[in-house]
Design goal:
Elements: H1 10-37, H2 42-50, H3 69-82, H4 84-103, H5 106-118, E1 123-126, E2 142-146, E3 149-160, E4 167-173, E5 182-188, E6 194-196, E7 210-221, E8 225-226, H6 232-268, E9 270-271, E10 274-275, H7 280-308, H8 314-338, H9 340-343, H10 350-360, H11 367-380
Helix pairs in contact: 1-3, 3-4, 3-6, 4-5, 4-6, 6-7, 6-8, 6-10, 7-8, 8-10, 8-11
This protein binds flavin-adenine dinucleotide.
């Protein structure tokens, strides 16, 4: 049964139905094999990109789909319920377009945005480094001006789509100032001196390539600076507010997928002469899982509606990321429990969901960092 959603328009209802159909046809049947073989599905991003899904949350006059965040996030949730690696990839791509769409000049936007939003190009987001994850201001990758050109040297870690992306939205140090020392540059994948290491050997989300990117004297034209020189960190953090909502939605989808599998199993598996869903102890576990999924959805939708109304939403985005990813971890773990011994095997997808949920508590700001953001808002409001 599809999730019964409260959507703002008939257009949104049609869009969600279309996304569900595409996800059922193109994602669900191939997800497990790609994950097992650790194969990045570049062709899936092309197909869904050409269907207009990659640019959905951006304005129509920029080449996007003009959908409110409330709708975009529910699209991500549907994708996340079928294949988390792809849904995370869509969310990351939206993050990579944020600096150009929000801070680029009209000329920059005209030049690059249509292909970025239209599915031709796939993006990667280079903020973290080996010694600068939770504290991005500790970054050391540097850009030095050589006339009109910036010359980049350094190493970015954990880059989703690293080695597969067509462009790298990169935050680099342009001065040693603690404030105003970081700049955002759009680096094309074919820039000389840019290379990717072997992808990380991860616990889960193995269909998503995550790689270290090396910048070795990479020369980037000055017109590829997004926003002002020195504005990179505020841009990166604003992008992450929106990105965290994307992760919250994907985590909710993952949890919904685990719940659906657990309920279906519990209706057919019998012990002591009846279906296990009819044992109160197990039925209550499923009820708690359903409550966690519904709370996660409601929490991210509240933050999205604030964003759509132009209201501040940074605190609510952190709350949504915290609530939804913790819910995904708990629900996927409980789904394994519902399936008993079978849940612990690779014959059923719930063990994979559990491995995939773990990273949602880590990337785009760990859940400790979300609590730090929320506490800071409480202290200053
Ligand atoms: C699969 C994957 C994909 C990723 N994709 C990207 C990407 O596309 N682009 C990108 O830029 N980055 C990406 N990342 C990086 C990710 O955002 C970082 O791993 C994350 O921000 C944590 O940084 P760290 O790993 O350096 O951990 P650390 O910052 O070293 O943290 C270690 C532990 O200390 C805790 N901690 C740190 N500081 C505090 C504090 N002040 N208070 C309390 N606890 C604290 C953390 O919560 C964590 O538990 C990805 C990571 C993974 C695993």
């Amino acid at each position: 049964m599809p999730v019964d959603r409260l959507l703002p328009s008939s257009e949104a209802r049609e869009l969600l139905a279309l996304v569900r159909d595409i996800a059922d046809a193109e994602l669900a049947p191939v997800a497990a094999v790609h994950e097992r073989e650790e194969r990045f599905p570049r062709e899936v991003f092309r197909t869904l990109g050409k269907a207009g899904i990659l640019g959905l949350p951006y304005p129509v006059d920029q080449g996007g789909g003009g959908q409110p965040y409330e709708v975009w996030l529910q699209v991500l949730e549907e994708l996340g319920a079928r294949w988390a690696s792809v849904a995370v990839g869509f969310s990351v791509h939206a993050l990579t377009c944020f600096p150009l769409a929000g801070y680029g000049t009209a000329e920059q936007q005209e030049r690059w945005l249509p292909d970025m939003l239209g599915g031709e190009l796939l993006g990667a987001y280079c903020l973290s480094e080996a010694d600068a994850g939770s504290d991005p201001n500790a970054m050391r990758t540097r850009a030095v001006a050589d006339g009109e050109v910036w010359v980049l040297d350094g190493v970015k870690a954990w880059v989703t789509h690293g080695g597969h992306a067509d462009f790298y939205t990169s935050m680099v140090r342009t001065s040693d100032a603690r404030s105003g020392g970081i700049t955002c540059l759009l680096v094309p994948a074919d820039a000389a001196g840019l290379s990717a290491d072997r992808p990380e050997d991860k616990m889960g989300l193995t269909g998503s390539a995550t790689a270290t990117m090396r910048f070795d004297g990479v020369r980037v034209d000055g017109d590829r600076v997004m926003g002002a020189v020195g504005q990179g960190l505020p841009i990166a953090l604003a992008a992450l507010d929106a990105g965290r909502l994307g992760i919250a939605a994907v985590a909710t989808g993952l949890a919904q997928g685990a719940l659906d599998d657990a309920v279906a199993y519990a209706k057919t598996r019998k012990t002591f002469g009846k279906a296990i869903i009819d044992h109160q102890g197990l039925g209550f576990l499923l009820a708690d899982m359903a409550a966690a999924v519904q709370s996660a959805r409601t929490t991210y939708l509240d933050a999205a509606r604030r964003k759509d109304l132009g209201r501040p939403y940074a605190k609510e985005a952190s709350i949504a990321k915290l609530v939804a990813t913790d819910a995904a971890m708990r629900v996927t773990t409980d789904a394994v429990q519902v399936l008993g011994g079978y849940g612990y095997t690779r014959d059923f997808p719930v063990e994979r969901y559990m491995r995939e949920a773990k990273v949602m508590q880590i990337f785009e700001g760990t859940n400790q960092i979300q609590r730090m953001v929320i506490a800071r808002h409480l202290a200053t409001s």
